[in-house]
Amino acid sequence: MSAGPILSYNEKVRSGRMEADAAQKVLAGKLQRVYDGLVSDDKKKVSKIKLFVGLKGENKLLTRGIYIYGGVGTGKSTMMDLFYDQVKIEAKRRVHFHEFLQDVHRRFNDIRKSENDPKGDPIPKVIDQIASEVSLLCFDELQVYNIVDAMILGRLFEGLFSKGVIIIATSNRPPEDLYKDGLQRQKFLPFIDLINDFLEVFCLKGKRDYRLERMLEKGVYLCPADQNAKLSMDNYFFEFTGGRNPETEIIEVLGRSIRIDASVGVARKSFKELCQEALGAADYLAIASRYHTLLLEDVRCMSESNESEARRFVNLIDALYEAKVKLICSADSEPEGLYLRGQGIFEFDRLVSRLMEMQSTEYLSLPHISESK
């Protein structure tokens, strides 16, 4: 074996960049088989095989990739990135699933505009476009949040599979729990069947939560908010996103657009951006349900003179707490010193209690409550 996920994994373990983990080693072997198929001499022949979806009596369907699910911190994204970096082909794309869906909808709009047919069916053309661009798609954080996306995914994935596109996906939940309790979920069930038929489903049950260990070791409440704190925030973002640069994501709330710098479920914003701007509880709830981790920078001390900022901060922390978002923040003061005086002190007693709890092992071990639950 001259290259591939197994060799890369073993090298990282030997060098100390990763710790040996039995479940990750098994996954490396499964990713190796996908890798071998992609780089083999007959991969073009394999990619042209006609796949039949939903027809009984056919032979077992050809596996088109792997669906990796498990809790936060088990190394799902790390293992997928390890695989992706080893695949030396240009026709590949690694993207957060939400960003991929945004791109799909942009393509829909472009096709409808170009054809002057707002009610036309753009899905076949989008499938052709994507399949002509890539033979490998790697999705991080596969989640389904709304009925619009739920209704298109079955046809979209069926088309991509039929074109021979290989898909590796990570998710915090098994296929059967996707879009759980969503509107008209019965129409979404064929997509779950596609996942189970075409992708090998693998549960990554790590014995250790490496992300949790790093947070407990380094601390998640950084005080004061100085240059050292900024460096720690940079390191956290680098580690949690696998070194990827943040991309601007748009969240629509009650007709407003909120711009968030984020990657793979990790968002980064400043106190000024979230608490000095005219945002409300609905905005904070949308952010908390979308991102499992928030890096909040430069929290300032508050008093009667900036009561509006203080109330927004309370609402933000309440939303993050209820959704069990991992909060990493830098602040000018310890929690009990953030509010100096004024009528809001009673609410700040609750906020201080929550900020302290959000640093605990018990809280940081809790799963994120996303908007699709």
List keywords for this structure.
single chain; alpha/beta; Rossmann fold; 2 domains; 15 helices; globular
- Structural class comes to alpha/beta
Main pleated-sheet profile: 6 strands, mixed
Instruction: Tell me the CATH topology of the largest domain.
Output: Rossmann fold
SSE series: HHHEHEHHEHEHEHEHEEEHHEHEHH
General form = globular
CATH superfamily of the largest domain: P-loop containing nucleotide triphosphate hydrolases
Q: Can you name the CATH architecture of the largest domain?
A: 3-Layer(aba) Sandwich
What proportion of the residues form beta strands (DSSP E)?
A: 15-25%
Distance between the termini: 43 Å
Tell me the helix content. 40-55%
Report low-confidence residues grouped into runs of 5 or more: 41-61
* Rg result: 22 Å
Short summary:
The two termini are 43 Å apart. The chain has helices at 5-15, 22-39, 43-47, 76-86, 97-114, 123-133, 147-162, 189-198, 210-218, 227-240, 271-275, 281-290, 307-322, 345-357, 361-364, and strands at 65-69, 92-96, 136-140, 166-171, 199-203, 221-222, 247-253, 256-263, 266-270, 293-299, 326-331. Helices cover 46% and strands 16% of the residues.
Layout of helices and strands:
Layout (H helix, E strand, L loop, with lengths): L4 H11 L6 H18 L3 H5 L17 E5 L6 H11 L5 E5 H18 L8 H11 L2 E5 L6 H16 L3 E6 L17 H10 E5 L6 H9 L2 E2 L4 H14 L6 E7 L2 E8 L2 E5 H5 L5 H10 L2 E7 L7 H16 L3 E6 L13 H13 L3 H4 L9
Parallel strand pairs: 1-4, 1-5, 2-3, 3-4, 6-11, 9-10, 10-11
Antiparallel strand pairs: 7-8, 8-9
